[in-house]
Amino acid sequence: MPQPVTMSDVARAAGVSVTTVSYVLSGKRPVAPHTRRAVEKAVADLGFTLNTVARNLRTGRSTIVALVVPDLANPFYAQLARGLQESLRGPGYHLVVGSSLAQRDEERAFLEEAVEQRMAGVVITPFRIGPDDLGPLADAGIPVVVSADVRFGDVDHVAPDSAAAFRDALAHVTAAGRRRVGMIAGPRDVTGGDPRLDVLRAEAGRFGLTLADPYVVPGEHTREAGAAAFEALMGLPKPPDAVFCVNDVTAVGALEKAEELGVDVPGDVALTGHDDIEFASLVRPRLSTVRYPAIEVGRSCARLLLSRLDGRSAARTVRVATTWVPRASA
Amino acid sequence: MPQPVTMSDVARAAGVSVTTVSYVLSGKRPVAPHTRRAVEKAVADLGFTLNTVARNLRTGRSTIVALVVPDLANPFYAQLARGLQESLRGPGYHLVVGSSLAQRDEERAFLEEAVEQRMAGVVITPFRIGPDDLGPLADAGIPVVVSADVRFGDVDHVAPDSAAAFRDALAHVTAAGRRRVGMIAGPRDVTGGDPRLDVLRAEAGRFGLTLADPYVVPGEHTREAGAAAFEALMGLPKPPDAVFCVNDVTAVGALEKAEELGVDVPGDVALTGHDDIEFASLVRPRLSTVRYPAIEVGRSCARLLLSRLDGRSAARTVRVATTWVPRASA
């Protein structure tokens, strides 16, 4: 299927920047006559049709899409941003990224800015806000996509489908005779709870295993929290022999702590991450993990957002498949 | 020295969000009377004085500061963003981050958006734009800080002071008898050239060493480019026995390629990075590197920007000290 003609194509054919193309289309700024003619010729030659961006330019709406994530230092979000940005570029949108530090005030502040700046759209991985906080965006006609395990009412939604990958991972560790499963989980006070824990617990049940306190240690999604949680698990009278982590960043923290404590991974404990960030294969032992393809997640968010921006209907929930990636740590 | 009272302090004392404080101060949105009184009391109690943010709120200027970096997937920039964001929060600014993918069109588009959105300020690590591209921001009265080795005319500037750290690194590798120095450098077509290469070359000269083609391999600042450059260096008739990398991300790519090629690091080649991103100590062998403290770089950018926003004078170039961090790879 041929790709639709984009402003980038027009810019390339006319030998000008995308911004110049947008000025010609919007009439918002003066453009030199010969440049304008080059753009108009490219538009005609390529059969480019005005899309939502061009309309928005004329109506004064920004071409900025905001991505709000809890932690820019987590490479998962950097890759998600890349997938999103690449998909938005063709249609003429620019992506800006804000880090909420997983704090409710910051999350709300970004949403308020999006309304005040009349941004084109918002993609958010929410931590402490609730569905009600998205109301002002709906009122302002700004489409929102939530990228998170948890659902936000009927807001467009991209989430991992982790059950099958967790099942593969559990089959792997139980085949090695491991029976005491623990989890380094997310925070307890997050809106919607911790669906990733719920899915893992349900899958563990199929293997006749329970996953309960004190074998579930909550914490932030950081390396430091992962290290602290791992230490707590190893301090139990009967420490777990298989630990699942809510993401790779916490798993890396756990690996470092294991080395410090002299705990052998995977000899004493099998350790599994979630995401497959690029560094998962660079640490030692190489991290076994559940691959949740961040770039594809970003692209899925873009598809949902663009379909709203273009007034097209589309599936409103996308489940992105995950895969169990066995390496050395489990 | 006591810290100045910030909007965050007022918000904490009044038990409300920073956003609510800003609404009270700006009068931009209605606030419930009892909330307004609580904020006004906190303002009086703490001796808070209206600063530029409050003035900007009333004049309609955004509280958004944009950070434009070449690659969000490089953890150095995520940390820089964190340092910047933390310093800007107190005074009431929000940070958004854009990834230019090191492309001139994208860099220009972000700058144009900053002007159109009347953003409060811009911090940029420029790759392909030149000083002239910053003209529209100056015209619009939007302060800019450049975070890069290269200077952009008289624009406020934060840069590493790498000479002493390179000298320490060179002393280390030459003491081990190494004499053939190579560099995995940045791109050749970047505005202002490659000052990091120039500094390393000058320091190598002090040790009677030359650093010249074909021992200098240019490329993008990516893991893939690092791997390709390392392979090119190892293909030389007399490969280098000490390789310096323009950043840690390229060094990690080089390490992976070394493992693939069966080249022993540091046995055959000593390998040195630049930045000390958090993963430098997680790869194996652990990466020796020049530590350029990203959070401190971000804070320095914030200080320069805030002094412009407050109309205060300040040093306009900040050199951030670097340190040689020997680990296992060199």
TrEMBL record, chains A, B:
CDD domains: HTH_LacI, PBP1_LacI_sugar_binding-like. Residues 5-59 form the HTH lacI-type domain. Keywords: DNA-binding, Transcription, Transcription regulation. One of its GO terms (molecular function) is DNA binding. InterPro entries: HTH_LacI (IPR000843), LacI/GalR-like_sensor (IPR046335), Lambda_DNA-bd_dom_sf (IPR010982), Peripla_BP_I (IPR028082). Transmembrane segments: none annotated. This is LacI family DNA-binding transcriptional regulator. It comes from Streptomyces hazeniae.
